[in-house]
Amino acid sequence: MRKSSVKLSDSEIIEMLSKQTFSSEAIGALYQNHFSVLSGYILQNQGAPQDAEDIFQEVIVNFIEIIRAGKFRGDSSISTFLFSLNRFTWLNELRKRNKSAIREQNYQTALGDAEPDVSKLMVHREEKNLIYATIDLLGAVCKKILLAYYYENLPMKEILTQVEFENEQTLRNKKSKCMKHLGTILSKDPLLAKKFKAALTYE
């Protein structure tokens, strides 16, 4: 992946990526500005160098699609958004790998050489983009709470250390409000609601 020798601002990168023509300059700037940090997260969390490269490419592709779909509102910097997307994508990949390994072991024990059903492990890129964009609409606090609770399976006590709330009950109340807000958004789009529910309850 080629690096960019020109320093571009977030707004310039967004403008370039929003166009339908491929922008090697913007892609290079993203690599130069963010690959080191994003790959470092992967390497520190059970990942190999090739994993870091693959996840980064997937994150960039998803990021471009989100921009071109008009879903990136710019409430956070590119750096913050990409880090969250990178973290989410890698954690989801780890979940799939862990579940795949468990299922494969179970199938081999029970059915010999039978192949595991991996269909439930697949989450299409288009669906993931819709999920990212929808959660982003809830705001930073709700986004952090819901991703931590549903995707990372963290207990409330641990989530409490990541957000500024007085106690677990206050956190639960906030989570409830976030879910009500989410429900309002999803009620306006039945198809999105169906895909979101499938991803949220992904096993």
Overview of this structure, please?
The chain is mostly helical. Residues 110-123 have low confidence and may be disordered. Helix 1 crosses helix 2, helix 3 packs across helix 5 (125-136) and helix 6 (140-151) crosses helix 8 (168-187). The radius of gyration is 19 Å and the shape is globular. It is built from nine helices and no strands. The protein has helices at residues 10-18, 24-44, 49-68, 78-111, 125-136, 140-151, 156-160, 168-187, 190-200.
Radius of gyration: 19 Å
Biggest β-sheet: count, sense, barrel? none
State the separation between the terminal residues, measured CA to CA: 34 Å
Number of helices: 9
What class would the helix/strand composition place it in? mainly alpha
Provide the residue-averaged pLDDT.
77
Number of strands: 0
Which H/E pattern describes the elements?
HHHHHHHHH
Helix content: over 70%
Q: Beta-strand percentage?
A: under 5%
Q: What is the global morphology?
A: globular
Low-confidence stretches: 110-123
Summarize the structure.
The chain has helices at 10-18, 24-44, 49-68, 78-111, 125-136, 140-151, 156-160, 168-187, 190-200. With 203 residues, the chain is mostly helical. The longest helix is centred in the middle third of the chain and has 34 residues, at 78-111.
Question: What layout of secondary structure does this protein have?
Answer:
Blueprint: H1 10-18, H2 24-44, H3 49-68, H4 78-111, H5 125-136, H6 140-151, H7 156-160, H8 168-187, H9 190-200
List its salient traits.
203 residues; mainly alpha; single chain
